[in-house]
Write a structure and sequence with these properties.
The chain is an alpha+beta fold. It is about 30% helix and about 30% strand. The chain is globular and about 70 Å long. The model is unreliable at about 325-330 (pLDDT under 50).
């Protein structure tokens, strides 16, 4: 998906309040013709933005957009865990993880990065992450460690637990985790985690932790998604303040990143077991060129999935997991 143009983004910011705006006034504010405004408005549907029109030449967003705001984010971050040294907010990026990874490679300062929209958002195994404009939270954080990547095994599970605990504490029922990186609610995908590492085998190394949470997405926003999904708004029936949530998510992930090297996955295992949606379900795992069939038995101290299959217990480090037909939710 292409990124929104500068003109489209300018129009979105003007229309974000949900009030009616005339095409003449919008054209004057943005510095383009009325015909150009009309053309840009017609194209906004590609970004998941619904624009109502009114004759003659009036436009408004329905529902309105509540955009990320630096001042509000920093205020909320101060209540959570303090602002990261570097906090960057973008209208659109190909990928927040990709942006921080490139900055690290260039030796630039990095911290936390948020975007209203991702034109090439990624999940595991290169899957496209659907990213409607200003509906969700697309967040990445970078952290440098003196240890090598092997010491960080299971980090994505610890991050998942922190997110599940936070969202549960916000009053959302039915939150669960699907190994290794999916956040679910009643079997429907609510979010995901993407951990990317770069560095030396023995250290130092960098971690970029990406988090995507479906916040205010509605049914029309997810028409292209090929799996069962949900959002916080669909679950609660209410609009969520993304500035507050983004600050809380940032604080939660930062705390995990700071603690993990000295504590490992151990302190998170009991909580992970409470959120584990695969435990004791028959599953299929496509891993390392073979399909394994067995019963999931939780995770080990390093975050590997434990699988009882053909009378043996195996530790699985990656792959695609599906619950076998006829058993449990389809996840």
């Amino acid at each position: 998906m292409l990124s929104p143009s500068a003109t489209s983004l300018a129009l979105l910011r003007l229309l974000a309040d949900g009030d009616w705006h005339s095409g003449v006034r919008l054209a004057e504010r943005v510095g383009v013709s009325r015909a150009a405004v009309c053309k840009q408005i017609q194209g906004l549907a590609r970004w998941g933005v619904a624009v109502q029109t009114q004759r003659p030449g009036g436009y408004r967003l329905d529902p309105p957009l509540h955009l990320l705001d630096r001042a509000r984010l920093e205020q909320e971050l101060a209540r959570c865990d303090g602002s990261p040294e570097v906090l960057e907010i973008f209208d659109s990026l190909p990928s927040t993880n990709g942006y921080l990874t490139a900055r690290i490679a260039q030796g630039e300062s990095v911290g936390a990065c948020l975007a209203e929209h991702q034109s090439a958002g990624r999940g595991r195994r290169g899957r496209v992450w659907q990213s409607p404009f200003a509906r969700n939270v697309y967040l990445s954080l970078a952290h440098r460690y003196e240890v090598g990547p092997a010491a960080l095994a299971g980090l994505s599970l610890a991050v998942g637990v922190a997110l599940a605990q936070l969202i549960t504490a916000r009053g959302v029922p039915g939150v669960g985790l699907k190994w290794p990186n999916d956040l679910l609610c009643d079997g429907h995908k609510l979010g995901g985690i993407l951990i990317e590492l770069q560095g030396e085998t023995q250290g130092p190394c960098w971690v970029v932790a990406g988090v995507g949470i479906n916040v205010n997405m509605q049914e029309a926003d997810g028409a292209a998604i090929d799996q069962a999904w949900t959002s916080l708004a669909r679950i609660s029936g209410e609009h969520w303040d993304r500035n507050v949530l983004a600050a809380q998510l940032t604080g939660a992930v930062r705390r995990v990143l700071a603690r993990f090297p000295r504590e490992g996955l151990g302190p998170w295992l009991a909580a992970y077991a409470r959120f584990d949606t695969l435990a004791d379900h028959p599953v299929h795992v496509d891993w390392a060129g073979e399909r394994l069939a067995g019963v999931a038995r939780g995770v080990d101290a390093n975050g590997a999935l434990l699988l009882d299959c053909a009378g043996h217990r195996r530790s699985v480090w990656g792959g695609e997991v599906t619950v076998r037909a006829g058993f449990g939710p389809s996840i």
